Structure formats: structure tokens, C-alpha cells
Amino acid sequence: MTTPTFLDGKHALVTGASSGLGWQFALTLARAGAKVSIAARSTDKLEKLAAEIESFDGRAVPVKMDVTDLSSIRDGVAAAETELGPVNILVNNSGVSALSRSESISEEDFDLVMDTNAKGAFFVAQSVAQSMIRHGNGGKIINIASVAANRVLKQNIAYCMSKAAVQHMTAALADEWGKYKIQVNGINPGYIVTGINRDYWDSEPGKKLIEKLPGRRVGEPAHLDGVLLLLAGPGSDFMTGSMIEVDDGLTAHGF
């Protein structure tokens, strides 16, 4: 199946692009015709992703950005726009977790998760929105939250709290920025296999969890492609403040 190129000429910024979902998001948007700024704390892996995008005649620019540092966010957005022009699409994807029982989680781990997933997501959105408002052409902001925004993931309290914050932030920003023709929507992925967690899904605890899931399976990053392209393209022009679950029924399932 050929990816439609309806994003020709658009500039998409993807945070957390050096691995996992962010890597896939950047590839998908580039195949749809977008120029892509790929952002992460380290640019080493981004160079490899840029080369992969350029191999199919896409355009990608690595951008150094630490979303826990406001000056780094502003510098990163400015660098991206210097290279590729105003950002039309933001995929707000950077995220971390810290597995711990709630009675044991450290302040350091709690702050890292909240600063990256919630505070960082807000200030990236703010920085990009300031540019969108200044240029007056509107745009698309896509916040990547999680099924953890709506249901408990055990021993993951900070992550659950942070993703609930991202979900509510999506609604609040949609309400506030609609007058600027900025659509703010989000995706709540379920369990997705990435390089970081692949070994877990092959382990006995991982296999036991899979047996409890509605479809007895976990997803691949490409399962999010359809929703990503919907929210990045003209199909979502009358959508804002929406969160879309892509979780194989996990949110609807109790166990």
C-alpha cells in the first residue's frame, strides 16, 4: 500500500524521534510528503533516521532538544524553522516512565516523568503554537498520551498521572487555540512493541499479560499510522480536543 502524499510542503516536528513511536511517526509523515524535523536529546540516532528518510527522497533535519529545558525547546523550534520554515504539524511525543510502587517512588523519578511527559509536552506545544499564531496559518498539534490517561497501569503512578495531564491539556488547548485555527488532538496508544520493551513481551510476565488483553496481542508502531495521518492531514480539519484510543479494545476491557 502506498502512503498518500497529501502532506506535501508541510513541515512536521516530531519530538522523541530517536526511537520507538517517534521514529515511526517521522517515517510515516515523511512518506506522506512532509518535511520533518526530528528532535531528541541526542542527535546520534537521528542522523540514521534522517538518512533513512532521505533514502526515499524525503527531507529530514535532526534537531537537538531536551523537553525538560525550556531554552532547549525554544532553541530547537527556532532551529527547525530556520531549516524548514514554520511548523505546520507538531507530534508531541517525548515520554519516559519510572516503574515503582507508589509508596517507594523517589522524588527524582517522579519529577523526571512529570517534567518530560506533562511539563515538557506543554512547553513544546506552547512554543510551536506561538509560531503558528504569529504566522496566522493555523496548524495541527498531536499529543501522544496513553491508555494510562484513563486506566491504571500498575506500579506506574507518575506515568499515569502525567498522561492524564496530557489528555486534559489537549482539551484545554483545543478550547483556547481554536480561534487561531489550531487543531489540538491526541492519541492514546495501548501496549505497543518497541525496542525498549520488546524483551518484556517475550518474557513469562509479558506473555501472561498478553493473555489478559482483549485481542491476546500487542501492537506495532505502524498500527498508529492511520490515526496519525488523520490528525496530521485535512481529514481532521473539523476535529479538535479529541483523544483517539488505538489500543485493541484495552480501554473498553476490564481485568
Description:
This protein has 255 residues and is α/β, with parallel strands linked by helices. The radius of gyration is 17 Å and the shape is globular. Strand 2, helix 2 and strand 3 form a beta-alpha-beta unit. It has a single domain, classed as Rossmann fold, CATH 3.40.50.720. The longest helix has 29 residues. 43% of the residues lie in helices and 15% in strands. The chain has a 7-stranded parallel β-sheet, with helices on both faces. It is built from 8 helices and 7 strands. The model has no long low-confidence stretch (mean pLDDT 95). Helix 4 packs parallel to helix 5.
Averaged pLDDT, please? 95
List low-confidence stretches.
Answer: none
Query: What is the second-level CATH architecture?
Result: 3-Layer(aba) Sandwich
Helix/strand order, N-terminal first: EHEHEHEHEHEHHHE
> From the alpha-carbon coordinates, what is the Rg to the nearest angstrom?
17 Å
Instruction: Report how far apart the termini are.
Output: 36 Å
